[in-house]
């Protein structure tokens, strides 16, 4: 599949037109208006809004795959997969991997995975060479999705890159919004660190990957400063001129199982590979820089 004719126009197809895909599409169009953007959603209201904004939009889910995928994916040059996985792994792989193999214009496929595939490392550093050993169902699903696409790379030459994303934040999706909503919590779990990445840095890594293709490569997307969540809340409160809420011990707090699962994994994720191989200079090397920019732009 690595051999393909040079297309006359770049065409991005986003399986799952969510937060990251929207920011990627916006940046691509800003840099080069000739980009054609297509995407999927499960929501009829969002479908209409996407079409109104000039995006070729389609309904898609794991139980409702495309009836005519070769027509819908015709002339696509770049594919971003950011749909949530099911128990078997990636839903796009399950429904349309064979169809994607038949699209000879494809130059790049990006699969959005998660640093949850590393599982718990008791606060130690991990890079892309670390063993995959998820300790949550969420991480196991992502690991299965990665494995399927990487196997397809080895067998059929799919130009796949895997992006292991840390906690995503950005405009309208940050600790500032949590504080404004009136329900921030500062949870104290000794030695625990979260990894995070600003959406603008996710976008610049993906665009660098498109322009410097290394098919089969895996990239960690994290900033330089893994930090406990209570530090973000404290800093966001300072920016907004609000008193931070009291610290609460992790052991004493009532928390939903999904939220508690995030605290069970503790690791520090290295981003050295994107710096060395893709020559990335992060726009937001830590959460302070990211929150400062969001606050100023608001």
Which features would summarize this protein structure in a list?
Rossmann fold, alpha/beta, two-stranded parallel ribbon, 298 residues, single chain, 11 helices
Structure in words:
The protein has a 7-stranded parallel sheet with strand order 3-2-1-4-5-7-11, sandwiched between helices. Strands 6-13 form a two-stranded parallel sheet. Strands 8-10 form a two-stranded parallel sheet. The longest helix is centred in the middle third of the chain and has 20 residues, at 137-156. Helix 1 (19-31) packs across helix 7 (199-211), helix 4 (91-101) packs parallel to helix 5 (137-156) and helix 8 (229-240) runs parallel beside helix 11. It is built from 11 helices and 13 strands. The protein has a domain at 11-168 and 196-226 and 269-283: NAD(P)-binding Rossmann-like Domain (Rossmann fold), CATH 3.40.50.720. The model has no long low-confidence stretch (mean pLDDT 94). The chain has 298 residues and is an alpha/beta fold. It has helices spanning 19-31, 44-52, 69-72, 91-101, 137-156, 175-180, 199-211, 229-240, 257-264, 272-277, 287-297, and strands at residues 11-15, 36-41, 56-59, 78-81, 108-114, 125-126, 160-165, 167-169, 186-188, 196-198, 218-221, 247-249, 268-269. It starts with 10 loop residues before the first strand and ends with a helix.
